């Protein structure tokens, strides 16, 4: 009897520096992840950083994606805003289109779009917002893949219009019983112990389950696993997670390839 091969994409948030500020570990992370979500200038990043990060990813064979966020540089895009579905459409199309221009100029092709921070979490539960984001991505390029929280409205909205979607799970974030992420305002939202995060990652991929903060077993099917790039231990965490997954027999490679 043969065992079905498990696959997972490891995506990392990159290109979050801007101006005189340096954030993250892009050069090191590009050697570990298989897909990159590059900030597009609204929550982080700037044109020069976008160009450099695109070039870095292409040099390392990392699949490039846009990471559009809310226009909230001071809050790093993690504060919820009241926006209409039409505004969400414009924000995503504007930012993803800008990054696509940099990718094409460097001779590459953009593979996916993943909303950032509060925009991502809002779209996970608000169907009108999710539909507008999916429509913006589809109209930019129907071959793009939309990354969204596993089991969320964003995944359903993409699938409803024929847009490919990749269900995402988070190694270093805790979950609530309904399958949504614990808000960052909660002190237990982020898992800071690398071994605990790696254990959670392996279980999500191999068993399709995660234990919520409330103690419930939450089922999820993950196509891609997020590795945050802005923490002080980001590189060590990403490396450990990749090693643990491979040791468990999971093939780490870009989604859809």
From TrEMBL:
Catalyzes the cleavage of 5-oxoproline to form L-glutamate coupled to the hydrolysis of ATP to ADP and inorganic phosphate. It comes from Paenibacillus naphthalenovorans. This is 5-oxoprolinase subunit A. It comes from the Bacteria. Forms a complex composed of PxpA, PxpB and PxpC. The keyword Nucleotide-binding applies. Its EC number is 3.5.2.9. Keywords: ATP-binding, Hydrolase, Nucleotide-binding. Belongs to the LamB/PxpA family. GO terms for molecular function: 5-oxoprolinase (ATP-hydrolyzing) activity; ATP binding. It catalyses: 5-oxo-L-proline + ATP + 2 H2O = L-glutamate + ADP + phosphate + H(+). Coiled coil: none annotated. One of its GO terms (biological process) is carbohydrate metabolic process. It holds the Pfam family LamB_YcsF.
């Amino acid at each position: 009897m043969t065992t079905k091969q498990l696959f997972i994409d490891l995506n990392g948030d990159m290109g979050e520096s801007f101006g005189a500020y340096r954030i993250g570990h892009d050069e090191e992370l590009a050697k570990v992840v298989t897909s990159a979500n590059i900030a597009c200038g609204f929550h982080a990043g700037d044109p020069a950083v976008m160009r450099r990060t695109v070039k870095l990813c292409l040099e390392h064979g990392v699949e490039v994606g846009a990471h559009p966020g809310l226009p909230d540089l001071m809050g790093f895009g993690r504060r919820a805003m009241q926006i209409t579905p039409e505004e969400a459409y414009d924000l995503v199309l504007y930012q993803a289109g800008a990054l696509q221009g940099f990718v094409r100029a460097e001779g590459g092709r953009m593979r996916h779009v993943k909303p950032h921070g509060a925009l991502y979490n809002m779209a996970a539960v608000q169907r009108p917002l999710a539909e507008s984001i999916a429509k913006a991505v589809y109209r930019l390029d129907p071959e793009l893949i939309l990354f969204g929280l596993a089991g969320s409205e964003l995944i359903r909205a993409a699938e409803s219009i024929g847009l490919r979607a990749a269900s995402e799970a988070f190694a270093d974030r805790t979950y609530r019983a309904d399958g949504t992420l614990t808000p960052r305002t909660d002190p237990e939202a982020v898992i800071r112990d690398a071994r605990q995060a790696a254990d959670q990652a392996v279980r999500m991929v191999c068993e399709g389950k995660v234990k919520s903060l409330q103690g419930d077993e939450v089922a999820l099917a993950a196509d891609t696993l997020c590795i945050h790039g802005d923490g002080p231990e980001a590189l060590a965490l990403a490396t450990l997670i990749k090693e643990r997954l491979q040791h468990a027999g999971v093939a780490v490679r870009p989604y859809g390839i």
